[in-house]
Design a protein that fits this description.
Blueprint: H1 2-5, H2 10-17, H3 50-64, H4 72-75, H5 98-113, H6 127-138, H7 142-154, E1 159-170, E2 183-190, H8 202-206, H9 208-211, E3 224-226, E4 237-246, E5 253-260, H10 267-271, H11 279-295, E6 309-317, E7 326-331, E8 344-355, H12 359-362, H13 367-384, H14 399-411, H15 416-433, H16 438-454, H17 460-482, H18 484-487, H19 493-512, H20 525-548, H21 555-588, H22 592-615, H23 621-642, H24 662-685, H25 700-719, H26 724-754, H27 765-787, H28 804-829, H29 833-845, H30 852-873, H31 876-899, H32 906-924, H33 932-935, H34 939-950, H35 954-967, E9 978-986, E10 991-1000, E11 1013-1020, E12 1031-1032, E13 1043-1051, H36 1054-1057, E14 1063-1070, E15 1078-1086, E16 1108-1111, H37 1117-1127, H38 1132-1145
Antiparallel strand pairs: 1-4, 1-8, 2-3, 2-5, 5-6, 7-8, 9-10, 9-16, 10-13, 11-12, 11-14, 14-15
Helix pairs in contact: 3-25, 5-6, 5-7, 6-14, 13-14, 13-15, 15-16, 15-17, 16-19, 17-19, 17-20, 19-21, 20-21, 20-22, 21-22, 21-23, 22-23, 23-24, 24-25, 24-26, 25-26, 25-27, 26-27, 26-28, 27-28, 28-31, 29-30, 29-31, 30-32, 31-32, 31-34, 32-34, 34-37, 35-37
Subcellular location: Cytoplasm; Late endosome; Recycling endosome
Domain MHD1: 628-749
Region (Disordered): 20-48, 70-90
Length: 1152
């Protein structure tokens, strides 16, 4: 391994001589790269760098959650119960006096004792159960309860009335010729007869107007009402409302007839004559004849021709009307079995009381107020008996409570809108004393909104009461929004859902604002919400500042707290954007995120500016570390704003905040440089140079180095320094530090391998493989980290193009690490040189009697073992390097074996040709190894040419020499000059005519800058033209552009000119009088292409062709290989040919 220590990489040399790579001015000039220089101990606490990189990982981990915009799914982490909201018993309804409670108690008892109508399936029909429930609600003793019931029973019974709304009918019979009818309704109350009716005697009820009892006394006109006539329809819509007094709830019934109107007589006038009808029998007849009477103004007789047609009737007992009222379709019934009717009629029925003998009624307390007080009492009782954690209670009332409220609401004639208003008022007040589910409150508002759109406005007193409830609830909600982060934390999905419902409730309040004559809000509610949020933001920030970084503390202590405060602000802004912003914007049209970001960003910026000015004169390593972490968070806040489409960070208070942090960042990066080296030193010290596990082929120190570089890259990405010129300086320095650390690591590895026992033996191969894999992993990690260190280059920079200093640094480091890898590879494969030579020699010494595959088998077995070991120990890139090194060793070993054996049989060379092809197959490995282009390049071509020429005869080698000259191309066409010639073959004389015309741009070979050129013209190969001698032109003195115009004849047969390799060779020489002539260049022209040689001339003569320009050149290695092959031949022909060429070579100079 001592050879490895002598290798000095180019980057390490730059570290020693280039100021950009040199950090330590105290470094000794004579120090070498063989012994890695330890980092100084003054930059940070000496150690192995673990603590420093742990802190860096903490900083980086903090930034992992700050990439891109936050998602609600990431922020919502808890489904636990929401924090308890503040309650105040004083915010409920006014407490009642004892007398008022007693009056309310008797009002409830009166309602139960005088209930009328049919109870629903979900209602409690047991009177005793209802009374017992009221006793519990009002907490009365049995004696007090009994006395109250007695007082209520002695009171006068209420007066009942039936509210009837005739809504519409459908599918009526068509009575008119046009296929329609003109329907109208007649309805009234049928009093009970003297004879009790049997239950279920539906037929008698249906025809009661005809078969009623003889009940005396005049029947008032108001007992019968008539709707309007709806012309030409079978599905009339009336929506008319009537009120009928009820004498006997248990026996009276509602009767309704539907008729088809046949003329335009006023029905109202006809109804006025009802006062003249005496007895039930007369009234029954009147229901039949009323239209005739109307037409004749009461004088029409029973013989009138024009009679309205009957369409159907209804008989509804009052006692069957549900307590809560009903809205339903009734099927029309016939008067008799002979009647034919069809269709349905929709009625809305409600049984109410018009006079109540209770203390509250006597004192002028309306049913609205009585219901409000009763509902509040019941709600307090029901909620009190529920489970302790009742913030999710949705106002579910027990059966007795719902029944009592239903009875009182119906008897008090409260509309659906009034009931909705009452439930909202009571529940919203109750919520402020004991928390309810906001979904329940929102449902009450939605119910109230639906009825508000259908009904007329409330009386002024009730509207004012509702407005007060809105104001109280909005004030309560705004107080909660001021403490948004306490009561609705963004990480609690339950709390966030409650916030959403609260905002929807407040949004509903805004919808009611235009409907009030007396507006409950002085300003727009969304403006109040924005003001509350701003105030809450400031209060939250002030609390956070006082707890983490109070201003009375010294600057270094405040710095730690300010970092925590900035982190808390960033997390809060994430919550605002990911959770709160969409809720506020979509529900109440408030841009909560912009409002909060602007406010908190300004506050943090002010604090940071003040603290950096205070700490700048006191810059220490600890202060620099804290300021560096603070800047990263402030930069994250800026980046967060910029990442939102349409937002510009230049308008922020944090714009330009990077300037005062620059000294701290520079100092911290110096610490990073030194700590990186300490960390690498510690990692190599504990490294055993063994693979970490079965799935990896590198050791632990390489993983540590890769992780360090990755952290540096991530840190630079987070830093994102905004000033391009400053970023270039920081990035250049950091990239140089990273390169220095990478090379420092390779030095440590060399030292580690050298220190291992038995380094000179075979056992070192496994550590060498690990080292090689470590270098490759380091090369990739460092390259990736350097690519990540790109900095902005301003307007002139191109997107995606690395800055030039960084690119140069990357290329230099990659070259050095590649060279390092090749050096280690060479040392690894050098162990096999002796074995490879031994097995190649075995092939060369194998007798011709054995087969080729048998002779090659030992080498193949050896290679198979070595390649299997390398494949198991090396990563793909290093395996390719090892294969390339082994391949070159094999080619050189075979070339040496060929050079050591001369004048051997052709089988000898055939065996090595077989060996070469077998090795190509092994190293290519069907595409899994080296590519064929790489295998068959370089030394392979030379070896293949050697083998091919060795198999040729002497004359074939000579022919190959001339063929190579014909194939040779001039690398630079004008370097050695040009020669113009003209050639043709005269078949009649059997001679070849060669005319040398002129030359140009020859090389100046004399001291005067000129030459004395002449041209030697000869034919080759010599064995084809044994009797032909070379000829030469005259010498042209002192010129580089000689003109010859000399013609030469060579008597040769045409068949010889057509032979393989036949050519005319032009050699340009510089004539020297006192020394050997100098070689200026040569050119060859194949005879097969000359006119008259390839095809006999027509007419027996050939005219001279066009001049040919030949580019002069000098012999290349390809030509000389054939010459070397001939040099090894001992036969006379080969030796004479070589001797003649060597005489010519003495005149040649080396290529300039």
């Amino acid at each position: 391994m001592s050879t490895l220590l002598d290798i000095k990489s180019s980057v390490l040399r730059q570290v020693q001589v280039c100021p950009s790579f040199r950090r330590r001015t105290e470094e000794e000039p004579g120090s070498t790269s063989a012994d890695p220089q330890e980092p100084p101990t003054g930059a940070w606490k000496p150690g192995d760098g673990v603590e420093f990189f742990s802190q860096m990982r903490r900083i980086l981990k903090k930034g992992e959650g700050r990439q891109g915009l936050p998602c609600p799914e990431v922020l919502l982490r808890s489904g636990s119960p929401a924090p308890a909201e503040p309650v105040d018993p004083n915010r409920g309804l006014r407490a009642l006096t004892q007398e008022e409670v007693q009056m309310l108690y008797e009002e409830a008892l009166y309602t139960v004792l005088h209930r009328a109508g049919t109870m629903g399936p979900e209602q409690v029909n047991d009177q005793e159960a209802l009374l017992s429930y009221l006793q519990q609600v009002f907490s009365t003793s049995p004696e007090e309860h009994a006395e109250a019931i007695e007082r209520v029973k002695k009171a006068k019974a209420p007066t009942y009335a039936l509210k009837v709304s005739v809504m519409r009918a459908k599918n009526l019979l068509a009575k008119d010729p046009n296929g329609f009818s003109d329907p109208y309704c007649m309805l009234g109350i049928l009093p009970a007869s003297g004879t009790p009716r049997e239950p279920g005697s539906h037929k008698e009820q249906r025809f009661s107007f005809r078969k009623g009892s003889k009940r005396g006394g005049p029947l008032p006109a108001k007992c019968i009402q008539v709707t309007e006539v709806k012309s030409s329809t079978l599905n009339p819509v009336w929506k008319e409302h009537f009120l009928f007094e009820i004498e006997d709830v248990s026996t009276d019934q509602l009767h309704l007839d539907i008729w088809d109107h046949d003329d335009d007589v006023s029905l109202v006038e006809a109804c006025r004559k009802l006062n003249e009808v005496i007895g039930l029998k007369g009234m029954s007849r009147y229901f039949k004849q009323i239209v005739k009477s109307a037409r004749a103004n009461g004088t029409a007789g029973p013989t009138e021709d024009h009679t309205d047609d009957f369409l159907g009737c209804l008989n509804i007992p009052i006692r069957e009307v549900p307590v809560a009222g009903e809205d339903r379709w009734f099927k029309l019934e016939p008067r008799s079995s002979a009647s034919r009717v069809q269709g349905d009629c929709q009625l809305v029925l409600k049984l109410i009381t018009t006079q109540r003998d209770t203390a509250m009624s006597q004192r002028g307390r309306s049913g609205f107020l009585s219901y409000l007080l009763l509902l509040s009492r019941l709600l307090q009782f029901e909620h009190r008996t529920d489970e302790p954690n009742s913030s999710s209670w949705r106002g579910e009332l027990s059966g007795p409570a719902a029944t009592v409220l239903c009875l009182h609401g119906a008897q008090s004639n409260l509309s659906a809108l009034q009931l909705a208003v009452l439930h909202w008022q009571v529940s919203s007040r109750h919520h402020q004393t004991r928390t309810l589910d906001y979904g329940y409150l929102l449902g009450l508002l939605e119910d109230m909104q639906a009825h508000w759109e259908e009904s007329a406005s409330l009386p002024q007193e009730q509207e004012e009461s509702l407005a007060d409830s809105f104001s109280a609830f909005s004030e309560f909600g705004l107080r909660l929004l001021r403490q948004l982060r306490d009561y609705f934390p963004a990480t609690n999905s339950t709390a966030v859902y409650r916030l959403e419902l609260l905002l929807k409730c407040l949004g509903k309040l805004q919808l009611f604002q235009p409907a009030f004559e007396i507006c409950p809000f002085e300003t727009e509610l969304n403006m109040d919400i924005a003001a509350a949020l701003k105030r809450g933001n400031r209060e939250w920030y002030d609390r956070l500042l006082n707890s983490k970084s109070p201003r009375e503390q010294p600057g270094p202590q405040r710095l730690v707290g300010l970092v925590e405060l900035a982190d808390a602000v960033y997390e809060d802004l994430q919550s605002c954007y990911g959770i709160y912003a969409s809720l506020f914007h979509s529900i109440v049209k408030v841009d909560f995120f912009t409002l909060t970001f602007r406010q908190l960003e300004r506050l943090v910026a002010e604090e940071a500016w003040v603290l950096t000015e205070e700490l700048s004169p006191k810059m220490t390593l600890e202060v620099a570390s804290g300021l560096f972490e603070l800047y990263l968070t402030l930069a994250d806040i800026q980046c967060f704003w910029s990442s939102i489409p349409g937002r510009d960070s230049r308008s922020l208070a944090l714009a330009g905040i990077h300037a005062p942090f620059l000294p701290a960042v520079k100092l911290w990066l110096q610490v990073l440089r030194d700590q990186t080296k300490w960390r690498l030193q510690g990692a190599v010290d504990v490294d055993t140079l063994e693979p970490m596990d079965a799935s990896s082929k590198h050791s632990s120190s390489a993983a540590t180095a890769s992780l360090c570089f990755s952290h540096i890259q991530e840190l630079w990405a987070r830093l994102a320094w905004p000033d391009p010129s400053q970023a270039q300086g920081l990035g250049t320095q950091l990239s140089q530090d990273l390169c220095e650390a990478a090379l420092f690591y390779t030095q440590l590895l060399r030292k580690k391998v050298d220190a291992q026992p038995g380094a000179a033996g075979e056992a070192v191969s496994e550590p060498l493989c690990v080292v090689l894999n470590n270098v490759e992993l380091l090369r990739k990690a460092a390259g990736q980290a350097l690519r990540g260190l790109a900095w902005p280059e301003g307007a002139a920079g191109l997107e995606g193009v690395l800055p030039r200093p960084l690119l140069s640094c990357m290329q230099a480091l990659d070259e050095d690490l590649q060279q390092e890898a090749h050096t280690v590879t060479a040392h690894l494969t050098s162990k096999t040189v002796g074995d490879i030579r031994k097995y190649v020699q075995h092939i060369s010494l194998s007798p011709d009697s054995i087969q080729n595959d048998e002779a090659v088998a030992p080498l193949m077995k050896y290679l198979d073992e070595k390649l299997a070991l390398l494949n198991a120990s090396l990563v793909k890139e290093n395996l390719s390097r090892a294969l390339e090194a082994l391949w070159e060793l094999l080619l050189q070993a075979i070339l040496q074996a060929l050079g050591a054996n001369r004048d051997v049989s052709a089988d000898f060379y055939g065996r090595f040709h077989f060996t070469l092809e077998a090795l190509v197959s092994v190293f290519h490995a069907e595409g899994q190894g080296l590519p064929l282009e790489s295998l068959r390049d370089g030394s392979y071509k030379r070896l293949e040419e050697e083998l091919r020429l060795h198999k040729c005869s002497t004359r074939e080698c000579i022919e190959q020499y001339y063929l190579d000259k014909l194939k040779q191309k001039s690398l630079e066409q004008n370097r050695f000059g040009r020669l113009s010639v003209r050639c043709h073959y005269e078949a009649a004389e059997q001679r070849l005519a060669v005319e040398v015309l002129h030359a140009a741009d020859l090389l100046p070979l004399d001291a005067n800058g000129l030459s004395d050129p002449f041209v030697i013209v000869e034919l080759g190969p010599p064995h084809l033209f044994p009797l032909v001698r070379s000829q030469r032109t005259q010498v042209k003195s002192r010129t580089l552009h000689p003109v010859y115009d000399e013609l030469f004849y060579f008597s040769v047969p045409a068949e010889a000119c057509r032979r393989r390799g036949a050519c005319v060779l032009f050699t340009v020489m510089d004539h020297d009088w006192l020394s050997t002539n100098d070689f200026a260049g040569e050119a060859a022209l194949g005879l097969g292409s000359i006119g008259g040689v390839a095809r006999p001339p027509v007419g027996g003569s050939v005219r001279a062709g066009q001049p040919i320009t030949l580019h002069l050149r000098r012999p290349r290695a390809q030509v000389r290989s054939a010459l070397r092959m001939l040099e090894g031949r001992a036969n006379k022909e080969a030796q004479e040919f070589v001797k003649r060429l060597k005489e010519l070579e003495k005149c040649m100079e080396a290529d300039p």
